[in-house]
Amino acid sequence: MNTRSHFKNIHLLCYFSVCRAHIALLCSARRTQNAFIAFFGVLLLSVGVQAQSPSQESVGINSSYLNRTLSKVTLKGLKNVPLTQIPPLLTRKGFKPVYADIQSDINSLYLTGLFQKVEFKPIPTANVILAMFKVVENPVVEHIRFEGVTVFSETFLKTLFLTQEGRVFNFNHFVTDKRALEQLYRDKGYPLAKVVGSVFLPSTNVLVITVAQGQLSQINVKGLKNIKPFVLTREMKTKVGDVYNEKQIRDDRERILRLGYFSDISSPFLGEGKKHEIVLTWNAVERKNNLINLGLEQDRERLVGFAEWTTHHTLLHSDLLSTKFQISRESSNQFQLSGYSVRYGQPWLLNQWPVSMVMDVWSEYRKEYLIQSITEKNVTDNRRIGASVTLGYPLDDTTLLKSRFKYESIQPRYSGSQAFEAYSVRSFLLGLSSTNVYPSLTGPHSGYYWSIEAEKGGNLGFVDLKGLEFSRANLAVAGFLPITEQSTLGVGHVLGIFKSVPDTAVTFESEGYVLGGAGSLRGYKETSPYVGTRKALFHVEYRYTLNSSLDFVTFVDTGTVFKTGTDFYKFSDYLVGKGVGFRVSTPLGPLRTDFAWGEAFIIHLGLGQVF
Questions:
Q1: Of 285, 376, 549, 552, which has the maximum CB count within 10 A?
Q2: At what angle do helices 171-187 and 39-50 cross, to 10 degrees?
Q3: How many CA atoms lie within 13 A of 394 on its CB side?
Q4: Contacts of 596 (CB under 8 A, 6+ apart)
Q5: pLDDT, tens only, 251-269
Q6: Residues 259 and 235 sit within 8 Å (Cβ to Cβ)
């Protein structure tokens, strides 16, 4: 393809695109019914007309003119446009003028986006011939004003624009700016935002850009039968009048699901209201107010049957009350009640303040390892009776401050047993956590979470709670890095220190830490774990999504527990487990199957992610 035909094709393609954009701009300006003139809409139409191929005679070009060598080529009409922005012309001094080149030069000048009119004038004389291109510049933009924009500041948007105040309006830059503005909204989670109007006011040389950001005019939840709407709206960060943000809407949906009132909430349905506003609708499926669950769960080597009853709205709307009973088969082959627990919770304290409150009461028989006798690999029967009150206060969308007071009595299950001396735990815990993962904690693809807790039992300094004197610190952190759209690399770390006074006090694993099993160090037996008062554990997982309901996982776990000191860097003592696994999506969370190699080959089953 020669140069001339190449230029011609490019110009034709560009003009088709530019004309469509200008016609749309003009129509948009008319729809606004603004009294101002849609200057650039008219400009573009004029460009489309003037860019048509004029006849040679209409511009004064004859065969005599084309057969002579040009002695000079001039460009007249430049006032504010620098010569550096003028493209090289095919019509040049020292060459004979070519009509196709003149036409290409006219088009090239138009396509800079800087001119509203371009003319060619041949100037033949007796001795020499001249070529003059006469241009009329676009006006200078004195000010850029944004209407309908609340998410970003006007100052910030101006720094992103190629169109600048004090410079000649360039239509090409403006088209790029429009696309960049809409892309900025999409990148920040506002996919519905779009530029709906662009008007130039010639009396003041002000460019007005109107943006429909996607404000929410209504938020509807269909399917509510027993739950009042305020229970949902108070949990939502998104309110009527806000701009639709897909990440915030997703977080709102997850937050509502975590309340436990719904078995499912659909993805949002979006409709358009008046003046480009958005109507958001969710379909919700409520759980039953009174629910009874029967099942089996594993406790060490034995299976324990349980019956759980859950009900809502007992003392006030939105509260939760649940009772759980456990029945186990003892060595005498008789079935006995092995424990019960009662939980009462309010997601908002008295439905007035954004403070969650949970009260727990329990009495249960356990088989646990005494930390000091772990080398014997024998479990000891004990009975735990206790109660706790936990308060949570959200500091922002991702950060939660938590406090808990706990009282628990630990005593031998059988009277006369000398296995250990009864003791009590009376403690106060303060914790801080932050969660920012996408799309959810049950299947994170990117983001992080962390939590840190400090617990003190006995003498708190300002008050003596009595009981076991101890202090405990826990740290958990995890990060998720997307490798591809289907794969994620996850890294998790858990660190814990429990210190009693004296440090040799006889306590159970519940006061310390356990290592081994499906939820900690895979490849090691849950029935014969490692127990201590210090713990360090690391996880690395590569997760690959096979389809919408099945994930494949490869993993490496390594960790250690010990009883005294802080020698976390003695890596020769670290145990290592590795393997592969699968995650099957269920309404209750991922069903986990891991094939692990450590001290032995073990198949682990579980519900939910390891981290």
A1: 552
A2: 130
A3: 15
A4: 522, 523, 555, 577, 578, 579, 581, 602, 603, 604
A5: 899 889 888 888 889 989 9
A6: yes
For the segment 224-240, the average pLDDT, to the nearest whole number, is 91
Domain boundaries, the chain: 3-137, 216-286, 354-607
Which range is least confidently modeled, 6-20, 96-110, 432-446? 6-20
Task: Give the Cβ contact number of residue 104 at 10 Å.
Answer: 22
CATH of domain 216-286: 3.10.20.310
Task: Classify each residue of 172-182 as buried b or exposed e, where b means 16 or more C-beta atoms within 10 Å of its C-beta.
Answer: ebbbebbeebb
CA distance linking residue 221 with residue 286, whole number of Å: 11
Q: Contact at 8 Å (CB) between 143 and 163?
A: no
What tokens appear for 96 in the block? 């004979």
DSSP letter assigned to residue 153: -
Q: Which amino acid is at 210?
A: T
* Neighbour count for residue 410 (Cβ, 10 Å): 23
Structure pTM?
0.71
pLDDT tens digits, one per residue of 31-58: 333 333 344 443 433 333 344 455 555 5
For residue 94 the two structure tokens come to 């020292």
pLDDT of residue 414: 85
What percent of the residues of the chain are helix, what percent strand, and what percent coil, each to the nearest 5?
Answer: 20, 45, 35
Q: Is the pLDDT of residue 234 over 50?
A: yes
Whole-angstrom distance, CA of residue 374 vs CA of residue 316: 47
Q: Is the pLDDT of residue 109 over 50?
A: yes
Strands 115-124 and 550-562: unpaired
Q: Confirm whether 3-137 and 216-286 share one CATH topology.
A: yes
Enter the CATH code of domain 3-137.
3.10.20.310
Nearest to 526 by CA among 512, 511, 514: 514
The whole-angstrom separation of Cα 276 and Cα 5 is 44
One-letter identity of residue 43: L
CATH for the stretch 354-607: 2.40.160.50
Q: Which residue has the tokens 């997982």?
A: 541
The 10 Å Cβ neighbour count of residue 569 is 8
